[in-house]
Amino acid sequence: MADKLLNWNEVLIGATIKDPGNSKNYETGSWRVEKPIWNPDTCINCMFCWVYCPDSAIKVDEKGNMAGIDYDHCKGCGICVEQCPSKPKSLAMILEANAKNKTEEDLRKELFSK
Amino acid sequence: MAFLNEVAKKKEGLVNGHRLCPGCTHSIIVRQIMAAAETEKYDIVAASATGCFEVSTGLYPYTSWNIPWIHNAFENVASTISGVEAMYKALKKKGKIDKDIRFIAIASDGGTYDIGLQALSGAIERGHRFLYICNDNNAYQNTGNQRSGATPFAANTTTSPNGSVIHGKTQSQKDIMSILEGHHMKYLAQASPSNWRDLMNKVKTALDVDGPTYINIIEPCTTGWGFPPDQAINMAQLAVDTCVWPIYEVVEGKVKINYKPKTKLPVEEYLKPQKRFAHIFKKGNEGLLEEFQAQIDRRWNWLLKREESGIGY
Ligand SMILES: Cc1ncc(C[n+]2csc(CCOP(=O)(O)OP(=O)(O)O)c2C)c(N)n1
Ligand code: SF4
Ligand code: SF4
Ligand code: SF4
Ligand SMILES: [Mg+2]
């Protein structure tokens, strides 16, 4: 519903929006200049990235553990990388321009195998 | 299982797709609030005053809210939530609703310290049961960083600019906590999203109080304060570690400081990374830094003394 504009006679009184959380359909991932990459091998599942992400872009599995990044919504702020406490960090930023046409695997190798 | 893994499994009250700046702490705070609310025990209904957070999470025809949420105007979020809460009480009395619902009003400093103060004072005095959250980003950010009653001393804003004669805001930050304390409410607190566990505990405590409660939360703003987005949480932590933003509670008038930095950092550690304070570090402006530090020390020492006295009401 949110994807098409409503006619004047379809708008509800008080501009009520009937569809909770429909902003999910609006993808803010295109705003990104830099992209966070996750390294599951060193991740300790502390969920600091989750509790500090402004855009609920840290995916969570059924155990409540870190399960990757929602690139449709991640705006690339870099807070998760800054706050990741594992040693070495399990998240790193790369310029979108330098990440183009590379697989997740390639990027992990490039960023984490030092 | 660790606490964060447990809450991360819950359905989020605020979802993404909102239009806040990358690295904005408004949504970090509200995500922490929603994670803290014991939604297995009660439902939450929220209201927002106009401001960055409201326009970004309620951009028609979109909403980022997974819970009932209402926006009315800039100056009256406390009145709006009062009305909603009064309606709930009436329906409950008539047996038309049996759910347990808790109410949260959210505004920034402009909507709290300044234009919304009268509405807030009235709602507290009438004794409505609601939690009022002020996400204090130290200025009117949505309209482009104008000074407010919460803007700190010497900060550069578009309406308190740094010039050749006057260097940023000449007045200090209003002590909103003391103003609200004058209403003798049961619970008020100051918190920071960097210290998420403390923030969540405060939200949980406040939501269980039968009456008005208030939490003042520092909300670093990458755009208005002028620091890189990835530093937002570090900025909140520095505010806490320099005692620029003490985290404490006032329970029935008694002060409890929840975190005392092992080494209290000098204020310049907090000020230096922010463009709005750049002029403080220019030659000839040393007095500004001294004055800033003196104001922070005065307030911190006063809080320490209040805690030590153990006096409440
Ligand atoms: C009565 C009224 N005056 C002015 C405005 C314009 N206005 C919209 S948001 C805003 C600033 C909000 O500042 P604050 O409450 O601190 O929220 P922030 O954007 O900083 O989060 C202003 C002045 C308005 N919407 N209503
Ligand atoms: S902050 Fe780092 S270590 Fe913690 S869950 Fe996220 S990626 Fe893993
Ligand atoms: S870069 Fe920012 S928006 Fe993206 S996942 Fe990390 S914290 Fe979230
Ligand atoms: S201007 Fe500041 S408070 Fe407003 S959305 Fe941007 S970062 Fe957040
Ligand atoms: Mg503000």
Structural account:
- The complex is a heterodimer of chains A (114) and B (313).
- Chain A has 114 residues and is an alpha+beta fold.
- Chain A has a domain at 38-112: 2-Layer Sandwich (Alpha-Beta Plaits).
- Chain A is built from 4 helices and 4 strands.
- In chain A, the strands form 2 sheets. Chain A has a two-stranded antiparallel sheet.
- In chain A, strand 2 and strand 3 (66-69) form a beta hairpin.
- Chain B has 313 residues and is of the alpha/beta class.
- Chain B has a single domain (2-309), classed as Rossmann fold.
- Chain B is 37% helix and 13% strand.
- An 8-stranded mixed sheet of chain B has the order 2-1-3-4-6-5-7-8, with helices on both faces.
- In chain B, helix 3 (52-57) links the parallel strand 1 and strand 2 (69-71).
- In chain B, helix 2 (25-36) packs across helix 8 (196-207).
- Chain B is globular, with a radius of gyration of 19 Å.
- The structure holds thiamine diphosphate (TPP), iron/sulfur cluster (SF4) (3 copies) and magnesium ion (MG).
- One iron/sulfur cluster binds next to helix 1 of chain A.
- Thiamine diphosphate (TPP) binds at residues 50-53, 74-75, 107-111, 137, 140-143, 148 of chain B.
Write a concise keyword list for the protein shown above.
heterodimer, A: 114 residues, alpha+beta, Alpha-Beta Plaits, two-stranded antiparallel ribbon, two-stranded antiparallel sheet, 4 strands, 15% strand, B: 313 residues, alpha/beta, Rossmann fold, 12 helices, 8 strands, binds thiamine diphosphate, binds iron/sulfur cluster, binds magnesium ion
Give the secondary structure arrangement, pairings included.
The complex is a heterodimer of chains A (114) and B (313).
Chain A: E1 34-38, H1 48-52, E2 58-60, E3 66-69, H2 79-83, E4 91-95, H3 96-99, H4 104-112
Antiparallel strand pairs in A: 1-4, 2-3
Chain B: H1 3-8, H2 25-36, E1 43-48, H3 52-57, E2 69-71, H4 77-93, E3 101-108, H5 110-114, H6 117-126, E4 131-136, H7 176-181, E5 187-191, H8 196-207, E6 213-218, H9 222-226, H10 232-241, E7 248-251, E8 254-257, H11 268-271, H12 286-309
Parallel strand pairs in B: 1-2, 1-3, 3-4, 4-6, 5-6
Antiparallel strand pairs in B: 5-7, 7-8
